[in-house]
Amino acid sequence: MEIQQPDGFYHFSEDSLLLAQFVTLEPGERVLDLGTGVGVVPLLLAARYPQCSFVGVEIQPELAAYAERNSALNSLGSRFTVLVGDYRQLFWEPRFSVVTANPPYFKVGSGRPSSNPSRWRARFEVDATLAETIGTAAKALLNGGRFYLVHRYERLGEIKDLCTAVGLEPGVFQEIDCSRTLVKARKV
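User: That's the sequence. What structure does it adopt?
Assistant: Structure tokens below.
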């Protein structure tokens, strides 16, 4: 597998790898990746699940272009579609079996922003809050669909409450270390 990343932008981290490893899919499922960046999570999943299809949404055009390039480099063809835009403003009918997200961990104002705008957007909830990410996932999921998220362990209580508020039943938690956790929720 080949993954290219642009210089000067936030590069994917171990969290994307752990999220992709945590996800389980069935043949034929459609997967939506919110804030796909250069497409790491869909690329890793596509390698493990060749009978599934993927849509990645990325607000930064430069990163979306790399996601498209990475899809082509790995010969995914129509199995991985990249959309450029703000997923909060896209109208999602429930049509995905699975939604994945590795959103920014920190609220704006909770830390020191990076002087690099791309890195700042990747670490802080500049483009979408955690509530907006979880709300979008709930809208996009079919009934019984699954939402997979990697986030800060300290926000787990908030994640559970936000999921419950939008009809997602959080049920599986996997602590990565004392600061991060993986979450799986099902749309009920």
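The longest strand covers residues 141-152.
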